[in-house]
Amino acid sequence: MRLAASIRSGRRQQLRLGTLPRIGGMASIPTRADDLGQVLDRIVPQVERLYLFLHGYEAIPAVARHSRIVPVLAPADSAFRASGKFYGLLQQNGPCLYFCFDDDILYPADYVARMTAAILRYSGRAFVGVHGTDYPTSGESYARDRKGRHFARRLRLDRMIDELGCGTLAFPSELLNIDPRRWPHGDMDDLMLAIDAERNGISRIAIRRRRDWLTPVHQLQPDSLWVRTLADDSRQSAQLVELKTLMGRMPRHQPPARPIEAPAP
Q1: High-pLDDT (> 90) share of the chain, %
Q2: Burial of 31 (C-beta count, 10 Å sphere; 0-12/13-18/19+)
Q3: Cα angle for residues 159, 13, 17 (degrees, 5° grid)
């Protein structure tokens, strides 16, 4: 009877989640402005609203003037950077299914539908995504000690992952209270989200897909966060220690024991 009740409850949850609005969030920088239109053309028809965080733009570009797009001009020194893709969560009054996008990826026409199906497959209890990374070794370098699963590669089966790329992320807004204003860094949202999820016992799942379901517009651009990380990953590596500690792959650092004092004569 308990199993049957659990199944019924899961189905009700899936039905409820399926009725929620599809809301998108994206952060963009001015050097990607020439490619922004083709990316938006793929995304906008799939969501009811897209919050577009224009980091460092001086004006709203013409391609962003659309009834479904809520553009947000942000100065270049804004604490929100890549994490601006979560800005829309702070504006939504009710629950929704939230989809994060990058401004340098071409998304297929069935992207939101298939990501929604993945959310429902796990009854809204996990973050789902396409791009992912595992940290299977004891190494502490964020850039070197990793096993990446690029979004353009085929994945035969869903699999749990340590860190999802937030440019290919989807989840119910009620899964976790995400507020990037609490994050110490605004330019490493993948790692910050993984830490928040692990602290709250929430799985990250890379979904099955065919090869080149998503395709990059460009790769390894000079202004990309990944290129900067390859040059210096010290900040990311410090945060990776926290993630690995939470996952039980590194011991917690204990304060040094106080020396035993000799008894007074």
Answers
A1: 68
A2: middle
A3: 80
pLDDT of residue 221: 66
Q: Are 92 and 23 in contact (CB under 8 A)?
A: yes
Q: Which of 57, 51, 58, 55 is nearest to 25 (CA)?
A: 51
Residue matched to tokens 């929430």: 202
Cα separation, 210 vs 36, whole angstroms: 25
Helix axes 111-121, 2-18, angle to 10 degrees: 160
- Which positions ≥6 away from 233 have C-beta within 8 Å? 141, 142, 143, 144
User: Would you state the structure tokens that stand for residue 38, as one six-digit string?
Assistant: 């083709």
128 CB-contact burial (10 Å; exposed 0-12 / middle 13-18 / buried 19+):
buried
The DSSP element (H or E) to which 153 belongs, if any, is none
Q: CA-CA distance, 166 to 99, in Å (whole number)?
A: 9
Tens of pLDDT, residue by residue over 78-94, are 888 889 999 999 999 89
**Spatial separation of the C-alpha atoms in residues 178 and 260, rounded to whole Å:** 45
CA distance readout (Å), 3 to 9, 53, 241: 10, 44, 39
| Residue 35, token pair as written in the block | 């490619």
Contacts of 194 (CB under 8 A, 6+ apart): 162, 163, 164, 204, 243
